[in-house]
Amino acid sequence: MTTMESTRAATKSPIVEKRKRRDWTNGLLNVWGVLMYLFLFAPIFVIIAFSFNTGRLLTSWNGFGFEGYEAFFNNPNAQRAVWVSVQAGFMAALIATVLGTMAGIALARRPGKWVGIFLALVAVVLVTPEIVDAVGLLPWYVRLGEDWNLVAFGNGLVRLVISHAIFATAVVALIVRARLAGLDEALEESAADLYAPPFRRFTQITLPLVMPAVLAGALLSFTLSLDNTIISSFVSTPGYTPWPVYVFSSLRSALRPEIASVSTLMFALTLVAIGLVALVLRRGGDSSGDIAKTMTGT
Question: Which residue has the higher pLDDT, 152 or 287?
Fold first, then answer.
């Protein structure tokens, strides 16, 4: 057999044909992946682009400029709405992180029949429609604040913090539980054998092990609070209108470019927070795959 014939036979071999089909399939999957990312991020790109619109309406492009950002910094009502959202998000994340971390550790390290019941309750909190939570929370706050004269529950910020923390606590608990479920208890048991008290075992062993999940849960709690619209619109009071409710009320008249400008700034803030958490996790020795699993609670 000549060299040319052997080359032709090699190119027609099943292995080469299978490799060609695999390369063709991988190429299609790569194109599909790019299209999916474009589909997911196209609205964000549109908002960022229109944040530099000089027109009076968000949907009408008039030219490139920074009038939208200037309008926000000259609008005290919009600034207060953003500040209320940041305050509520920070305090709700703090409460949810503390309670959710304790619950997640208990779920992972204290197994028993109660775990299934507690997980079912957590699942109910996660899957319950927000409109149901909102309808249930509003009369509860009215009864506590007016009928029982508990002044704190008449404060709009307190209402927002509690309402947002309820859902976020369930999220943090599942993330922390998922983190600890994949870690061996040998270190904690060794510390107990060496007569380390429970509090010291928790602060020096358990908490450092679960810290990546705690940071991820805190970040998710903050972002979930910033994004909450339905519950916030029910429980907020005059003077404590969060940013999503402010944007929703703006739909009655017209969307201004400053809406897109603030949305862009909040998106940048979220990216910075995600980057800081990823940096902390990376310095803690986690790989990119571990970081993704921790952030998603798997």
Answer: 152
